[in-house]
Every structure is written in C-alpha cells, then in structure tokens.
Write a structure and sequence with these properties.
This protein folds into 2 domains: 182 residues, FAD/NAD(P)-binding domain; 141 residues, D-Amino Acid Oxidase, subunit A, domain 2 (D-Amino Acid Oxidase, Chain A, domain 2), CATH 3.30.9. The longest helix is centred in the N-terminal third of the chain and has 20 residues. By secondary structure, the chain is of the alpha/beta class. The two termini are 23 Å apart. It is globular and about 65 Å long. Bound molecules: flavin-adenine dinucleotide. Flavin-adenine dinucleotide binds next to helix 1, strand 12, strand 16 and helix 7.
Length: 384
C-alpha cells in the first residue's frame, strides 16, 4: 500500500504497552529521537534517551513542515514526505502538544532562473495533486505576496498551508512531555557501542556502564556512522552542512522564501535568517568562510536583507544519503541485530518526517503492521 493510503488509526496503540518489550534505549536527543521516545513512552514503555550533547544543542533548523521541493527526488521520498506532512496535525493532537506548539503558515518557493522555473512548474503539479492550497504567482500577485524580491525572481510557488514551527521550542516541549510520561533523558552521555548478545541488541555501552534495553533506537542524525553496527553494510552517507546568519534591523518576509539551496526565513523573534545548504565536499563542523559566503548570498532573494545587522552565525550538519531517503527500519537479515531500529532523518526533511518515523519505530518494535513498503528506507540497503 502506498503511504498516502495508510490509515493513521491502525498506528494508534492506545497506550496498552507492547507485549514483552518493556524498556527501550533511544540514542540521540534530537527531534527524531525525542519524537520516537514520545511515541514509545505514550504507549507505556519505559524509555531512556541518551545524548552526548547538551540539552537543545541539536534542536535547530528552519522548522518547515513542507512537501518535497526537489524535482529530482525519488517517488519514494515524495510519498513518504507527503504522508508525513499530513500526519503532523494528528501527531500534535496525539502528543498533547496542539495547544502548545505555535505554528506559522506559508512557504514561497522562488524561481531563481528559467531552468529553476521549469523545475518549480513540475513541482507545482505534484504539490497541487496532493496539497490543494498552492498558487503559482507572477507579476503583481508575486510582488503582493512578498515585496522586494530580487529582480531575477520572476515567478514563485506559494504553499499556503506549509507549517513552520520553532524547533528549539518544540524540542523543549517534547523533552518535558516525555519526562512527564516517565522517560529519562541523560544529556552529556555518549553511547559508545551497541550491546549485542545472541540474536538481539540488549542496550548500549556508555562510559563505565551498560545501559540495558529490550530494544535500541538509533536516532543519531549526522553521526549515524559512529554507532553503525559492525555486521551491517557500511552507511552510504555523507553530510550536508547548513549555515545560517541571523539578522536584525530589517523587515523579515511574511513567509519563508526558498530559492535554490538557500532561503530567507522570518524568525519568531521578528529577526530574519539567511540560510544556505551545501553538500559534504566542504564539510566542516563549525561555520566556515565558504558557508558564510553562501548564506549571505541568500540575500539575493530579498535584497533588503543585505542591510541587516548580523547578530548570529551558526552551522549544523544533517546526514546526506542517496536520493535524500532517510534511514528507517531494522536489519532483519542480520544475526544479532533484532530489536535495533534506525530513525535517521535526512537533509531538509528530518523534522517533517519525525512524527511518521516515530510511528514506524513504534510499529516495528510492537509488531504492528507498517502499511507501506519500507524497503527504500532500509538501513541495510547499502550502496545499491
Ligand atoms: C539548518 C537546518 C535547517 C533544517 N530545516 C529543516 C526544515 O525546514 N524542515 C525539516 O523537515 N527538516 C529540516 N532540517 C532537518 C531537521 O532539522 C533534522 O533532521 C531534525 O531536527 C531531526 O534531526 P535528528 O534528530 O534526526 O538528528 P540530530 O538533530 O542531528 O540529532 C542527533 C542527536 O544524536 C546525538 N548523538 C549522535 N551520536 C550519538 C552517540 N553515539 N551517543 C549519544 N548521542 C549521540 C547528537 O548529539 C544529536 O543530539 C534542517 C536541518 C538544518 C541543520
């Protein structure tokens, strides 16, 4: 069955527990890990999240819950992301966060060249089939939506319903919520290795101790390779580096403007951010001059941004996998890896996918059928 036909109701467990499985270790306290932990804690499992970093260090990003914006993405990603977008409102309700998570709406994809315009026209067809609240804008309707666009932007695709949340606020709410459901979060705690005995994982090794768990969820983001099971095919991933520059003293646009690999983003504080994304070739953990230059170039989309006062510079990594497909599922064919599930979001869709991934984690660990084909996302898919 295609994900868009999946019935959400089948995925709801009703908090009745999960058979013999009672406790789970989630490695990674980013938004994927916290949402998986929330889903499992909601079902009555005892969950421990371990993260090597400080609280909140990973809760960043532009916060868009939006369909695919890449004409070259495979169908499997389109379907998965579409299902994830539709799942978000239900997830907020199910997680008791609907009232607490402020959401803004709208996203303008700006055509930056004639070629890019053709790509967006194709994307427009796909968006409109699945998300009706979409308009193709030119001339005065474009200028009326966002004033002051760069002269090279002659058309744009406006998605009225794309959501935007504050990832940091969402992370803080999630952390509080799962602790309220009895989960533990251990910040500053690196998982060093999987604890494998017999045909299953039985927890993770931490410095000086073994943390037991009937199952382990790998939600390790860009560091997924660090805890990758030795028996499995190597992870075919590199990383994408995102750089963002925060500006004040300029009028932020009404909606985020996404160009080609760059974006102008209104922030809840009233400030604006210029964001760029680059592939792994010039990978660096910290902001670099090249990343900064690319981010500043995003002001081409809205030239008034160039007058802003720079008050922040940050860079973050997400994993980059072939086709932009996340790592979602287990390693069923590999001896010793029962009870291990990967939930690693990729590139610009990690936040959007996280509630759907949390449902899949729950389904796999609790023997609930997953009503679509997980094959394209299998973590053991190797290089093919
Ligand atoms: C600038 C930027 C903009 C983005 N914009 C969007 C967007 O608009 N929409 C969208 O859907 N997505 C977006 N994303 C992606 C999204 O933010 C992430 O994919 C999402 O937050 C989920 O991340 P994660 O939890 O999978 O990984 P991460 O946030 O990277 O978290 C992984 C965590 O695992 C921990 N960890 C790793 N290894 C270990 C270990 N061995 N032991 C213990 N802890 C470990 C790390 O410390 C980290 O906290 C964006 C990303 C960036 C960087």
């Amino acid at each position: 069955m295609n994900p868009k036909q999946a019935s959400h109701a089948r995925w709801r467990g009703g908090g009745k527990g999960c058979g013999v499985l009672t406790d789970v270790v989630v490695v990674g306290g980013g938004l994927s890990g916290l949402m998986a932990a929330e889903r499992l804690a909601r079902e009555g499992l005892f969950v421990t999240v371990v993260d090597r970093g400080e609280p909140g260090a990973a809760w960043g990003g532009t916060g868009l819950v939006a369909p695919v914006l890449d004409g070259t993405a495979p169908d499997a990603l389109w379907d998965l992301v579409d299902d994830a977008v539709r799942r978000w409102p239900d997830w907020l309700v199910d997680a008791d966060l609907e009232e607490q998570v402020p959401r803004a709406r709208g996203l303008l994809a700006a055509a930056e060249s004639p070629f890019h315009r053709q790509e967006l026209e194709r994307i427009r067809g796909r968006w409109q089939r699945r998300h009706p609240a979409v308009d193709w804008l030119t001339g005065s309707s474009l200028a009326g939506t966002v004033a002051g666009l760069g002269r090279h932007v002659e058309a744009g695709l406006l998605h009225h319903d794309a959501l935007r949340v504050d990832p940091h606020r969402l992370g803080a709410l999630l952390a509080a919520s799962i602790q309220g459901r009895g989960a533990r979060i251990r910040w500053g705690t690196p998982a060093l290795a999987l604890e494998v005995r017999g045909d299953r994982v039985h927890g993770v090794r931490l410095p000086g101790e073994i943390l037991p768990g009937g199952a382990v969820v790998l939600a390790t983001g860009a560091e997924a390779a660090g805890l990758w099971p030795e028996a499995a095919a190597p992870l075919p991933a590199s990383v994408q580096r995102w750089t963002s520059v925060t500006l004040v003293g300029v009028a932020a646009p009404r909606v985020p403007i996404a160009g080609r690999g760059r974006m102008v983003l209104p922030l809840d504080s009233g400030a604006a951010a210029l964001v760029s994304v680059a592939d792994g070739a010039d990978y660096r953990g910290a902001p670099s001059a090249a990343g900064l230059r690319r981010a500043l170039d995003a002001a081409d989309l809205l030239p008034a941004m160039a007058e802003g006062r720079v008050v922040g510079l940050a860079s973050r990594l997400t994993p980059a996998l072939p086709g932009g497909l996340p790592l979602l599922g287990g390693w069923p064919g590999l001896e010793g890896l029962g009870g291990l599930v990967a939930a690693v979001g990729v590139g610009p869709h990690g936040l959007t996918l996280a509630p759907l991934m949390s449902d899949v984690v729950y389904a796999l660990l609790c023997d609930v059928p997953v009503p679509f084909d997980l094959d394209p996302f299998r973590p053991d898919r190797g290089e093919d």
